[in-house]
């Protein structure tokens, strides 16, 4: 007979607070997320085991867990209704919150905040693109996510991370970090600082158009990487978008751009050898085709005209954030070695340089008439 560990004892006492029908079996760390602590929770009833995702929410980053979960509750409920209206399967295509027995979306034990989701079986997330089809399917999933939420009133959502993609604010924060130079690192990165300043005209390209109303305010995911899409184990198709912590009002161009920033890099995000880092235009076209096939009429012509700029802007912004964190002593992004944030900044800057060279091609690809078959569930 297995002896219950200290962790088992803790989690077994946590389970009864949630509306799950079963007795505690096990709870083990799961996935590769860096923000929250994520576990695969198994419960058993009448010999049948059921899995759930249990997360300890990082309330040091997300200061108001109530607002965070308010956003997730509204978005998952709207997605569920949209999927049902299209004849889809919400159990496979949407995150489903398991409420507490008092009807709340999370549980506070006096120290930490916990939430539970239904485990989506028969599907997997991947940390890197195994083949171009993976990238295409992630585009379909994020395009469908945008389409499902096209009629959602984004003003109902809180900004859980204020100014998250306000590039003008990010630039001011960068300048403040350069001025403060708390770690004495500014002198060694003068070339990088100059590069950011020389490209500062990018900062207002989208945020100014949101403020003017030219680009509509939408529900955005704000972390549109491949590892936030569940791919069906049998068909390889993109099923559900997960990790909704950063769901906020924003622009589709941000979500599209962040996917390109992450997925079209020929090297690793922290690759020290920049000869391995190049912008993959072929993967940009692959993602674009998948995204447009799924988003359908849920995108305006103006948004399409700014998709390519969104890719450049998000890459610039992320590189600037990596450099800011390096200047501040690596306090935000998790690092495993000295200089990692600086290497991350270098890869983003290389990508921006290469994207700017082919920007006209990127723009033309995004705005040409789309003849693909709309793909919806």
How would you characterize the largest beta sheet? 6 strands, antiparallel
Query: How much strand content do the residues show?
Result: 5-15%
Number of β-strand runs: 11
Helicity range: 40-55%
Counted by DSSP, the helix tally is 13
Q: Terminal Cα separation, in Å?
A: 46 Å
What is the C-alpha radius of gyration, as a whole number of Å? 21 Å
Mean pLDDT: 93
Protein structure class: alpha+beta
Which H/E pattern describes the elements? HEEEHHEEEEHHHHEEEEHHHHHH
Approximate shape: globular
Low-confidence parts = none
Would you spell out the secondary-structure blueprint of this structure?
Blueprint (H helix, E strand, L loop, with lengths): L5 H9 L8 E7 L7 E9 L2 E10 L7 H21 L4 H4 L3 E2 L8 E2 L4 E6 L4 E2 L7 H17 L18 H14 L9 H9 L8 H6 L5 E3 L8 E4 L5 E4 L6 E3 L1 H12 L17 H15 L5 H5 L1 H22 L11 H18 L1 H9 L10
Helix pairs in contact: 4-8, 4-9, 5-11, 8-9, 8-11, 11-12
Task: Walk me through the structure.
By secondary structure, the chain is of the alpha+beta class. Helices cover 43% and strands 14% of the residues. Strands 1, 2, 3, 4, 5 and 6 form a six-stranded antiparallel sheet that branches. A three-stranded antiparallel sheet has the order 7-9-10. A two-stranded antiparallel sheet has the order 8-11. The longest helix has 22 residues, at 307-328.
């Amino acid at each position: 007979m297995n002896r219950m560990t200290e962790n088992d004892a803790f989690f077994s006492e946590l389970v009864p607070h949630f509306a799950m029908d079963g007795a505690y079996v096990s709870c083990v760390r799961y996935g590769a997320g860096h923000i929250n602590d994520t576990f695969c929770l198994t419960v058993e009833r009448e010999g049948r085991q059921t899995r759930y995702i249990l997360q300890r929410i990082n309330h040091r980053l997300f200061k108001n867990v109530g607002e965070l979960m308010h956003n997730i509750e509204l978005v998952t409920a709207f997605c569920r209704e949209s999927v049902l209206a299209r004849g889809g399967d919400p159990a496979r295509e949407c995150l489903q919150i398991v409420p507490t027995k008092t009807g709340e979306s999370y549980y506070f034990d006096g120290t930490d905040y916990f939430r539970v989701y239904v485990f989506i079986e028969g599907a997997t997330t991947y940390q890197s693109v195994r083949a171009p089809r993976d990238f295409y399917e992630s585009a379909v999933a994020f395009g469908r996510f945008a389409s499902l939420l096209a009629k959602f009133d984004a003003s109902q959502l809180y900004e859980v991370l204020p100014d998250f993609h306000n590039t003008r604010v990010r630039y001011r924060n960068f300048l403040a970090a350069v001025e403060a130079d708390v770690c004495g690192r500014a002198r060694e990165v003068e070339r990088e600082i100059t590069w950011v300043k020389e490209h500062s005209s990018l900062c207002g390209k989208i945020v100014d158009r949101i403020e003017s109303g030219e680009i509509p305010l939408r529900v955005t995911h704000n972390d549109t990487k491949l590892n936030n899409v569940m791919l069906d184990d049998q068909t390889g198709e993109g099923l559900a978008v997960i990790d909704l912590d950063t769901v906020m009002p924003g622009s589709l161009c941000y979500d599209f751009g962040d996917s390109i920033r992450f997925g079209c890099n020929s090297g690793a995000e922290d690759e020290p050898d920049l000869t391995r880092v190049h912008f993959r235009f072929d993967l940009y076209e692959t993602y674009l085709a998948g995204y447009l096939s799924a988003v359908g009429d849920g995108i305006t012509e103006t948004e399409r005209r700014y998709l390519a700029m969104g890719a450049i802007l998000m890459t610039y912004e992320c590189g600037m954030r990596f450099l800011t964190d390096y200047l501040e002593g690596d306090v935000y992004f998790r690092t495993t070695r000295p200089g990692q944030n600086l290497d991350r900044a270098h890869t983003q800057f290389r990508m921006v340089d290469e994207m700017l060279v082919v920007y006209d091609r990127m723009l033309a690809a995004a705005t040409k008439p789309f003849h693909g078959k709309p793909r919806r569930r």
